[in-house]
Amino acid sequence: MYNAAVFDLDGTILDTLDDLQLALNHTLDAHGFPLYTLAQVRAMVGNGLRKLMLDACPAGTPQPEVDSVFDDFCAYYAIHCNDHTHPYPGIPQMIEHLRAAGVKCAAVSNKGDFAVRELMELHFPGAFDFVLGQRDDIPRKPDAAMVYLALDSMGVSRDTACYVGDSEVDILTAKNSQIPCISVTWGFRDPDFLAEKGAALLVDTVPQLEEAICQG
């Protein structure tokens, strides 16, 4: 059994895609920019909100306007981040089981820290030992800094921890952190894509994920 599991947020424990797409398109429409389908947004997320805004704005958009789009998105998303967002079925119960078994749980995300903390408090109040979203003073994933900060805060060495995510960013984050990665297939990337990106262990269901963590 692993002593700790570090989870990604979007696409791993929370289904946030609808709210991300709606907030993105609301902001882009206000700036007169083209909108994106749910499938397009699904493929774009994972590298943080600033990168999402940069990718979403038309090529050649001046940086000051990209910054304005980012600010407007954050203001709108702060209000509407939980309109349709919900945990994937079985995730809250799995976290309860892991904590009862002595496994410490952390959530680290490239989503802005303001939204991460609000969503975690709404959907997992008190359920995680450590929570961190993207902040300007900490390198974002796939840098290992967020994972190491989580492990240090929980008093766990990387030799006894695993990382759980749904994207190629998560696979690389785990590699950079030198801990095993468990990739879930219900999130924002397809299983074949994850396998191409080097996923070592794919799980299709929450019970399979719980078993993988508990077996270590």
Task: Give a quick precis of the structure.
Helix content is 48%, strand content 15%. It is of the alpha/beta class.
Architecture overview:
The protein has 216 residues and is of the alpha/beta class. Helices cover 48% and strands 15% of the residues. It contains 10 helices and 8 strands. The protein has helices at 17-30, 38-44, 49-56, 63-80, 91-100, 113-123, 145-154, 168-177, 191-196, 206-215, and strands spanning 4-7, 14-15, 86-87, 104-112, 130-134, 161-165, 181-184, 202-203. The strands form 2 sheets. The protein has a 6-stranded parallel β-sheet, with helices on both faces. A two-stranded antiparallel ribbon has the order 2-3. Helix 6 (113-123) links the parallel strand 4 (104-112) and strand 5 (130-134). The longest helix is centred in the first third of the chain and has 18 residues, at 63-80. The chain is globular and about 50 Å long. 43% of the residues are buried.
- Any low-confidence stretches, pLDDT <50, length ≥5? none
Alpha-carbon Rg, integer: 17 Å
Q: Which sequence of strands runs across the widest sheet?
A: 5-4-1-6-7-8
Structural class: alpha/beta
Task: Assess the beta-strand content as a share of residues.
Answer: 15-25%
Run of helices and strands:
EEHHHHEHEHEHEHEHEH
Q: How many strand segments?
A: 8
Taking the sheet with the most strands, its summary is:
6 strands, parallel
**Helix share of residues?**
40-55%
Topology (elements, then pairings):
Blueprint: E1 4-7, E2 14-15, H1 17-30, H2 38-44, H3 49-56, H4 63-80, E3 86-87, H5 91-100, E4 104-112, H6 113-123, E5 130-134, H7 145-154, E6 161-165, H8 168-177, E7 181-184, H9 191-196, E8 202-203, H10 206-215
Parallel strand pairs: 1-4, 1-6, 4-5, 6-7, 7-8
Antiparallel strand pairs: 2-3
